[in-house]
Amino acid sequence: MFTKMKNIDTAFRYVRGFTMLVIVGCIIVCCYTVYKSLRSVTLMQDKVYILANGKALEAYASDRKDNVPIEARDHVKTFHKLFFTLDPDDKVIKTNTTKALYLADDSAKRIYDDLKENGFYSGIISGNISQTIQIDSVTIDVKEYPYRFNCYAKQHIIRTTSIVNRNLITSGSLRNVSRSDNNPHGFLIERWETIENKDLSVENRK
Predict the structure, then answer these.
(1) Hey, which bits of 40-186 come out as E strands?
(2) Nearest to 88 by CA among 133, 113, 120
């Protein structure tokens, strides 16, 4: 009788131990599954598909801090190309300068207003002058915020009788703002000023 009870007790302990092992194993498997699922969701959120020419291209999102120097330089280049690319067409001038002024504060607006008041843009139109800019380099100091920058560029001014090449150096700072269709990089140029803008050469046109 006692032997039979002892065997039943031993069997019960074995069953209980086996059941505990199964439960612990299920918990481990469930935790691992949840972990892998969350990791997969996180990776998928960082993955972007771009449709180009009917083909889906895979891209990965990254933190803004990883791209600050690249985005900041492109913001400065975009602003200068818009502000200094001019043709003898009032609509072209207005379109380019309006886009440029979305990327900077009132320091750029003041320069624009001064040029307009002094008849610079009307002179472009009446003189059939075209102006382009070539950005040589942009330096960004990301160690301190707002980020200071210097832009080094060449201007090419095409008149009916000559082509003028000018050296252009500007400086300013960048602060973070919300991204929008008008400002996709999320930067705003502040305290923008021209350090140098002098003629390098003048070529007579035949």
Answers:
(1) 47-52, 55-60, 130-141, 147-158, 162-176
(2) 120
**Residue count (the chain):** 206
Write down the domain spans for the chain.
Answer: 2-48, 64-204
49 conformational bin, left if phi > 0, alpha if psi -120 to 50, beta if neither: beta
Angle between helices 64-84 and 90-101 (to 10 degrees): 150
Whether the Cβ atoms of residue 145 and residue 170 lie closer than 8 Å to each other: no
Percent of residues in the chain assigned helix, strand, coil, to nearest 5: 45, 35, 20
Residuewise pLDDT in 10s, the chain (206 residues): 545 555 666 766 776 777 777 787 778 877 777 777 667 655 555 555 555 555 555 555 555 566 889 999 999 999 999 999 999 999 999 999 999 999 999 999 999 999 999 999 999 999 999 999 999 999 999 899 999 999 999 999 999 899 999 999 999 999 999 999 999 999 999 999 999 999 999 998 87
Q: What is the DSSP letter of 26?
A: H
Amino acid letter at 201?
S
64-204 placed in CATH 3.10.450.230: yes
Name the pTM for this structure.
0.70
Contact 190, 165 (CB under 8 A): no
